[in-house]
Amino acid sequence: MSEPSVTETQQDREKHSRIKDGSNRYRSTMLNIIPPIIFGSFVVGGWYFISYIALNENRRFLLRPPHKVLVDGFFDWSGNGGMEEILQSLWSSTKVAGIGLFFAILIGFVLATLMSQALTIEKAMFPFLVTLQAIPVLAIVPLIKFWWGSGQTSRVVVCIIISLFPIIVNTLFGLQSADRGIHDLFTLHHANRLTRLKKLMFPAALPAIFAGLRISAGLSVIGAIVGDFFFAKGEVGLGQLIKRFSADLQGEELLTAVILSAALGVVVFLIFTWIQNRVIGKWSDRSELIS
After folding, report:
1. What are phi and psi of 250, to 5 degrees?
2. Closest alpha carbon to 264 in 229, 210, 223, 211
3. Residue 48: closest CA among 24, 23, 70, 76
4. Can you tell me the distance from the alpha carbon of 150 to that of 216, in angstroms, rounded to the nearest whole number?
């Protein structure tokens, strides 16, 4: 009986590898789809239970059932409070969130880089950054309105204030987490600060940087809606619509605006997750399950 040739063995290995890859992709897809569907079914079921069982009919306006939200909120494109107006407001809030996040990233990177280069700068600035993070936005709304008015600029400022701190903290942590032994190796080769920052500290900081970006991306959406809630001049955003729907007891439209706000935050988060996977790849075995 003849032994299998090298070519046949290689073909068998490639076949098994393709089968294994296909099985892993199928398992990953099922893991990403099935659990959210199951949990979502429980959420919708609980929603119906509260609407029809827990609430009396005369109080059902507090939480309209899902199909009423779908019909009267998402499928109604006419008049005030229709889907067309909500989408226009969504676009306005998206622009504010994007501008605010851009400046938060720019400011956060610059400050974190400066703080990583000198302990004195870090000790001098960090307490004030913590203080800025701890101040409730509501407390400084009058100041923001006094300095920048009630338009889009003030909304962007609110976005920056809310989303800045996670970028600074995570970027600083990442820049300071480079291996000390590799730092010593750079020192032996007389590397300057710029070379050390570009070739050692920044690559080592990428996972932490993207963790901060994903957190701040969601916070920028919150900032856009909160800012729009307080500053009513300029384009109407989701915050103004939510405020109006709440005052007019328009439950379906209110839930539609809230759902779209959440969807915007999820989309922005997923965009930065996709960018992270493209930039730094898969850093752990678990990433194969969630990618």
Report:
1. -90, 85
2. 223
3. 70
4. 23
Per-residue pLDDT of the chain (291 residues; tens, 9 = 90+): 455 555 556 665 665 666 655 666 777 777 778 888 888 888 888 888 888 887 777 777 677 788 777 777 777 666 666 777 888 888 988 999 999 999 999 999 999 988 888 888 888 888 888 888 888 888 888 888 888 888 888 889 999 999 999 999 999 888 888 777 776 777 777 777 787 777 777 888 888 888 889 999 889 998 888 888 888 777 778 888 888 887 777 777 888 888 888 888 889 888 888 888 888 765 544 444 344
The two three-digit tokens of residue 176, written as one number = 């300071």
Please report the sign of the dihedral spanned by the C-alpha atoms of residue 225, residue 231, residue 232, residue 236. Answer: negative
Which tokens sit at 13? Answer: 């290995």
Closest C-alpha among 93, 97, 24, 89 to residue 272: 97
Length of the chain in terms of residues written = 291
Which structure tokens are listed for 63? Answer: 């939480």
Residue with tokens 């994007």: 98
Structure tokens at 49: 């239970």
d(C-alpha 37, C-alpha 235), whole Å: 36
> What backbone torsions phi and psi does residue 151 show, to the nearest 5 degrees?
-100, -155
Are 262 and 221 a contacting pair, CB within 8 Å? no
Listing DSSP states for 233-290 in one string gives: SSS--HHHHHHHHHHTT-HHHHHHHHHHHHHHHHHHHHHHHHHHHHHH---STTHHHH
237/91 Cα distance (integer angstroms): 8
Longest Cα–Cα distance in the chain: 92
pTM comes to 0.76
List of residues 6+ apart from 165 with CB closer than 8 A: 129, 130, 132, 133
Q: Rounded to an integer, what distance in angstroms lies between the CA atom of residue 265 and that of residue 261?
A: 6
